[in-house]
Design a protein that fits this description.
577 residues, 10% strand, single chain, four-stranded antiparallel sheet, alpha/beta, six-stranded mixed sheet
Length: 577
């Protein structure tokens, strides 16, 4: 795990090395200061030699200034290295997430990924800064001060050695017990973020149904769980403070008592005792800093494991060694295709799909809720891979193509339409970043979007709010269709993408498709039979299997499901009239 994370230090290695170097220099300066102070007391003040006091005082001041300078440089490089490390981690995770297949994305919640990119990275960033700064300073200071105390008086130095061993064992026990709680708490953070994200995304629904109190209670519950787990961890970690204080004051009392007896006995000078007190504080402060680092590293360890999990996640959809970079046409063939979201042949979403679609045909897809209509079309641009069997486009297995090439030739308007914050033009150019204004206008005319876009004061430069909240459902669908058309694909898939438009507009869209893109294979999933009855062929799906495949007329005669849907919709329309 550490090796994986350290790979993301990259261009900040120099700063990561310079920081400990300046820390070491700072510590050396701080170790020298008590020696100079002891010399001033014993040789200067003790002998009433003021010139020696002034001279050594100037040396001590210069040493203190150097210590301050080295400390400031260490802080600067620590901040530079840690923030750069965090930047690289976020970039690495984000880029890896972009390569995830739908199956990889299904493994993580959106809130979980957001937590990893924000809270978890911040924890690792803070820990890294503490490690290259305090985790170098504290042990180096402690060892150096310990050596100096043994040089001054070995008997007194044994007090520090015993205290250090005692505190080290105690800290280890605390960290071992606290780590599982910290690990659990970040998983609970995912639930908390999910609650917030869901609430903010659906705030209009929340207000429409007056469910504010319910949402508050749900958030309160998720927040309380995080609080309780943090409390359990902090109850253990907080024990560090009283134990540390006990060790500090015990050491000071013992050194004061033993040191005073040694001065009276003549085996120790006053200056040496003063320097021992300075080294006492250095050693014990180092132990406190090490305790802080251990707490932060314990928290960061849980976050680091979650970050590495995302970094090591590999897409289950990859290019073969020598992929094909050209799709010949829009023909589609399913050959005994089975598909399961869990890759379990016993839990198939689609079973034994066999059919051929000629290039340029218009194919309708009809089926009840849960009949796997969306799963069926998602296999064509290889958003998922078949569990067994094959899917061919342009005469070749979709797994033989370069993924980007295939998806550029298969435009898909998803069931859940998504627009991003930005202008209408910027949203439409997702389909083709180099599209001209004329091409954008033409695509909008085909999708029957131009009539409402041109009514906006800023027309195609109209700003779309996040999620497309300032346009209606039907307008959003038409803009998404226009965006797909700008790709000029060989295959166009509409996954129930005209459900929010009226029947007249729906008919105009289908007419435009027939006249303007006759060579493009069009697959239209719809709930209304009127949207697909003019299609060349219609697929009827039922429970993941093809129940019927034929023209509107053939299915009315031969398929019970299709006939039942048609009669219920026709009867409903007649009653409405």
């Amino acid at each position: 795990m550490i090796k994986k994370l350290m790979a993301y230090v990259r261009e900040y290695k120099k700063a990561s090395i310079l920081c400990p170097l300046f820390i070491a220099l700072e510590v050396i300066m701080e170790i020298i200061i008590p020696l100079i102070m002891a010399s001033i007391i014993d040789s200067g003040i003790g002998n009433n030699n003021l010139s020696y006091v002034y001279r050594m005082g100037a040396v001590m001041l210069g040493t203190a200034m150097l210590s301050l300078t080295f400390g400031a440089l260490a802080g600067k490089y620590a901040a530079y290295a840690s923030t750069g490390f965090a930047k690289n981690l976020r970039k690495g995770m984000y880029e890896n997430i972009q390569d995830f297949s739908f199956q990889n994305i299904d493994k993580y919640s959106t809130a979980g990924l957001v937590t990893r990119l924000t809270t978890d990275v911040t924890n690792v960033q803070n820990a890294y800064q503490m490690v290259i700064r305090m985790f170098v300073r504290a042990p180096f200071m402690m060892i150096s001060a310990m050596v100096m105390t043994f040089i001054i008086n070995a008997r007194l130095a044994m007090v520090f050695l015993v205290a250090t061993v005692f505190l080290s064992i105690f800290l280890y026990l605390i960290m071992t017990k606290a780590h599982p709680y910290f690990k659990e708490v970040f998983e609970k953070y995912d639930n908390l973020n999910a609650s917030v994200q869901e609430n903010l995304t659906g705030i209009r629904v929340v207000k429409a149904y007056v469910r504010e109190d319910y949402e508050k209670n749900k958030f309160k519950g998720a927040s309380k769980v995080v609080y309780e787990f943090f409390l359990r961890a902090e109850k253990l970690v907080v024990l560090n403070t009283p134990v540390m204080s006990f060790a500090v004051y015990t050491c000071i009392l013992l050194i004061s008592w033993l040191g005073a007896k040694m001065i009276v006995g003549g085996s120790m000078t006053t200056g040496q005792l003063m320097s021992m007190f300075s080294y006492t504080m250095n050693i014990l402060m180092s132990l406190m800093f090490m305790a802080m680092v251990f707490v932060m590293v314990t928290m960061a360890k849980s976050s680091a494991e979650r970050i590495v999990e995302v970094l090591e996640e590999k897409s289950d959809l990859t290019n073969k060694e020598d992929p094909v970079y050209e799709v010949k046409d829009g023909s589609i063939e399913f050959n005994h295709a089975n598909f399961s979201y869990s890759n379990d042949e016993e839990k198939l979403a689609l079973e034994d799909i066999n059919l051929k679609i000629e290039s340029g045909q218009t194919i309708g897809v009809l089926g009840g809720t849960g009949s796997a209509k969306t799963s069926f079309v998602q296999l064509i641009p290889r958003l998922y891979d078949v569990t067994s069997g094959s899917v061919k486009v342009g005469g070749l297995d979709v797994r033989d193509y370069d993924i980007e090439t295939l998806r550029n030739e298969v435009a898909m308007v998803l069931q859940k339409n998504v627009l991003f914050s930005g202008t209408i033009k910027e949203n439409l150019r997702w389909g083709n970043k180099d599209a001209t204004d004329e091409e954008i206008i033409h695509a909008c005319k085909l999708a029957q979007a131009s009539e409402f876009v041109e009514r906006f004061p800023n027309q195609y430069d109209t700003h779309i709010e996040q999620g497309g909240t300032n346009v209606s459902g039907g307008q959003k669908q038409r803009l998404c269709i226009a965006r797909a058309l700008l790709k000029k694909p060989k295959i166009l898939i509409l996954d129930d993408s005209t459900s929010a438009v009226d029947t007249k507009t729906d008919a105009l869209i289908r007419k435009a498709f027939k006249e303007e893109i006759p060579d493009t294979t069009k697959i239209i999933i719809a709930q209304r039979i009127s949207s697909i009855e003019d299609a060349d062929r219609i697929i009827v799906l039922n429970d993941g299997k093809i129940d019927g495949f034929g023209t509107h007329k053939e299915l009315l005669e031969n398929n019970a499901i299709y006939r039942e849907v048609y009669e219920s919709q026709t009867r409903g329309a007649n009653q409405h009239e």
